[in-house]
Amino acid sequence: MTPWLVFALFSSGCKPPESVAQRESGEKVDPLVDTTATSPFDDPPPVIAAPSVAEPETATLPSTETETKTQLPLDCVLTNADGRSIRGTIVGKMGDEIAFQRASDGKAFVLSIDGLSPNDQLELAELSDEAVETVAALKIPSVTAEGESGNGKNKMAGGARPRRADWHDDPEKAFAEAKALGLPVYVFFTGSDWCPPCKKQEESVHKKPDFQRFADSHLVLLEIDFPRRRSQPAGVKERNQAMASEWGVSSFPSLFLASDPNGDREPVRRAQSLEDFLDGLEGQVGRFKAAFAVPAAP
After folding, report:
1. 160-165 long-range CB contacts below 8 Å, 24 or more apart?
2. Where are the domains of the chain?
3. CATH match of 74-138 with 2.30.30.700
4. For the segment 240-266, what is each residue's pLDDT rounded down to a tens digit?
């Protein structure tokens, strides 16, 4: 092979593609600069700088098969379903949601894993739930000191949308949210598909708008269920039974306010009317809020 042919072969490839306009203007293409990042991803549009040659971010690979991505914070580049990318740090994970801090400005978001690319979904599935209180705190606007029950309305700072208290069925997530918000957990031990008094508590109290408004401002809701007619995962059944045993639950429904799964808890008495029930519950909540001693949200 002649020398000029060898030179031509070695000089023909391994160059980033250039558009016609870039060739005419002399502009160079940097394949390490991401110019597609938009939404949350796009406010403001982050500029992802090329990593330093001396310290590449992908310099090492896991050395053994037992190493998994379970430790947070985790620096990464995420891509959404539209192909837009963003560099930042995963600082918490709760179920199918992550707390993500954008590198360009430090702003934090809650992102749904289902909205990311298939590759990112597979990788994040390997992460265990961690720092769930961070996700909870980002998801739910804090209630201001003025958000008292009274007329049942929430007064939120800056006109933000009021928080809605939804029912948890996982004690760990419920108490993580309670810790982040400085609220007590209202625990409802029930037999949802066979216990008549439990169904009455649901219909006459829990499904009433006045209770929901009160819970939105003052409670994190947790249901510990013991169904008979429908199946329940073995792990959930075992966990619920252990919790009922530890808390001394011998009949249904049983109601508690608690600040910690292994700490202070107080039984909640049922009442003949919704008004009487909420009056008693409000006094108990006041004592628990004082025990938390959490400063009012700015």
Report:
1. 162/216, 162/217, 163/216, 163/217, 164/212, 164/216, 165/212, 165/215, 165/216, 165/219, 165/220, 165/221
2. 74-138, 140-292
3. yes
4. 999 999 999 999 999 999 988 888 899
